[in-house]
Design brief:
By secondary structure, the chain is an alpha/beta fold. The chain has nine helices and 13 strands. The strands form three sheets. Strands 1, 2, 3, 4, 5, 6, 7, 8 and 9 form a nine-stranded mixed sheet that branches. A hairpin with a 4-residue loop joins strand 11 and strand 12.
């Protein structure tokens, strides 16, 4: 039994959560506990046994359907382990995930991101094994590859994604956790990484593998435009640069926002048919 707390935040996605819990039960190194924070819902339903202590909490936020930053902070506040492992509800951990992540955090004494591989639609239908998922999973085309002869690789902070990462609980506390001034989707994880850089916490990629389950995505994410703009403004106020600039450029070129060097204005709402047309079946959600 390790002294690592495994933390997941959830809204909907019950099938994905069940697959994640099955992956936790198969871990070669068991976590001390698993903590789930439900966002704006109170009934987790019947959950599979993860093979460790399981605690479920609820965070209600009347203003935001997805209070991602606040939910991660709540999960960390409930954790008792010396190491915190944050795992997105869409991810299934490989059998050695926690073992390798824990070792990477201990070795680096830093912020460590796992190796995320992406599954096509239908990959988790029926029974599955790590070996079967590994054959189907794809590397993200825009993510760096860890060299075969290394277990850790320094990464630029702007490449941090919150799908799978770990760090010592004391470092999370020293950073102040996630900035819960970010509302909903977008930017809160890049802000977290920039805070790590500000306090000189090193950032690495490691071999701890997870398999990202398929779900519908939108490119660009017009369905989150309001949150993205609100959070981009907050990020710019803190760090004097614009995050998510690829999306902002697309929103601007399509006429939904006016994006200037120092400010952004939403010009009009996105039409439902435009959102629907942006839906994509790429596994890289």
């Amino acid at each position: 039994m390790s002294d690592i707390s495994l933390l997941t935040i959830v809204r909907g996605r019950r099938d994905h959560l069940h697959h994640l819990l099955r992956g936790v039960a198969n871990q070669s190194t068991k976590p001390r506990e698993m903590i789930i924070v439900l966002m704006n819902e109170s009934d987790p339903g019947d959950l599979p046994d993860p093979g460790c202590q399981l605690f479920v909490h609820t965070l209600f936020d009347a203003d935001h359907a997805l209070p991602l930053a606040a939910a991660r902070n709540r999960a960390a506040a409930e954790a008792r382990g010396e190491t915190l492992a944050f795992l997105d509800v869409d991810c299934i951990p490989h059998r050695d995930y926690l073992k390798q992540l824990d070792e990477a955090v201990e070795l680096s004494r830093g912020l460590v991101m796992g190796d995320v591989r992406y599954l096509p639609k239908g990959a988790t239908d029926g029974d599955w094994t790590d070996a079967a998922l590994d054959k189907l999973a794809q590397r993200h085309p825009r993510r760096p590859k860890l060299p075969d002869d290394r277990t850790l690789m320094p990464l630029p902070y702007h490449l941090f994604w919150s799908l799978s990462f770990g760090l010592r609980a004391e470092d999370f506390a020293y950073m102040g956790g996630f900035d819960d001034g970010y509302s909903g989707y977008g930017g809160e994880d890049t802000d977290f990484a920039f805070t790590a850089r500000h306090v000189r916490l090193p950032f690495y990629g490691c071999r701890a593998r997870v398999y990202h389950q398929y779900h519908d995505t939108y490119s660009p994410p017009y369905n989150h435009l309001g949150d993205i703009i609100t959070n981009a403004v907050r990020f710019h106020q803190k760090w004097q640069i614009w995050p998510m600039d690829g999306w902002l450029k697309q929103f601007d070129q399509a006429g939904y926002i006016d994006w200037q060097p120092t400010h952004i204005e939403i010009l009009k709402d996105v039409e439902p048919e435009t959102i629907a047309a942006a839906k994509t079946e790429t596994p890289f959600g």
